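If it is no trouble, can you show me the amino acids of a protein and the tokens describing how it folds?
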Amino acid sequence: MRALIALADSTEINAFVIDIKDEFGINYISSDTLVRRNAGRGGVIANLPALLDTLKAHHILPIARIVVFKDSVAARANPQWTIRTEDGAPWRDKKGLTWVNPYDRALWEYDFRVADDAARMGFGEIQFDYIRFPEPYKSLPAQVFPGAGDRRKPEVLAEFLRTARTRLDKYNVRTTADIFGMVTSVSGALEVGQQWEQLAPRTDALLPMVYPSHYPPGSFNVAHPNADPYKVVYSAVSAAHKRDVALGLTGERVRPWLQAFTLGSPHYGPAELSAEKRAVYDAGYQGWVLWNPGSQYDAVASALAKKPRPAT
């Protein structure tokens, strides 16, 4: 954390995304009994209030990431919240993990209370992740969602985000959501339920994960997407911009996740990150967020604009 704060002090980085609740439960100590019951064993951020004070002193916006529907801890503690198979058993993904049912309002309340905690602690933005259904692979049993009725997947995801935004308004915090990068360019809804036109109006910003390494060959007429970060990011973010304009949404409503890691060829360094950043600006937006699974950003740090030194 000291190294990351030093990086922000010397460059254009102005916010940190901090996992408050991930796939393994909550990462802080809550006084809310409902939240504590679903804590899990993933560990606790040490001295979180002091950390938030430190970030504020360094003019770094703390963003609380909350994983919502991929939650095996809550599924284990509350089996009534789980997605089911046709014979009534808990449904499991390819890794054997259970997922919670996005149609269950009791589950929503749990995640909203985590967001309440984060807002009260001083986080300036609540970023919801895994706002989606699990992939319905043909090799796995069919998914059954108790309480779904005739509501489509995109509709219930949009309703979750709309309700969260309304609830959190009283704290004067922004609400955002992470989504698959392909959502910007696919016209309909993905099988996991994400659809641009449903989600974009219900958040302050959407964060599509436009990692070039994650696009299949031929995407955007690029034979090897990972080798052309500018064209992939520009094409994906431009598609999002056009769709927001059609919806009447203006301003910084799109903040893409950029690739700050290497997956396959070529190696990602300063040149690749510079190309990704330029693509975002050329597509009409100023904000972006970096992802590296180990929070190791030295390999791309020279692509970050330097803060001017204070006058002496």
In short: Residues 210-303 form one domain. The chain is about 30% helix and 15% strand. The longest strand covers residues 15-22.
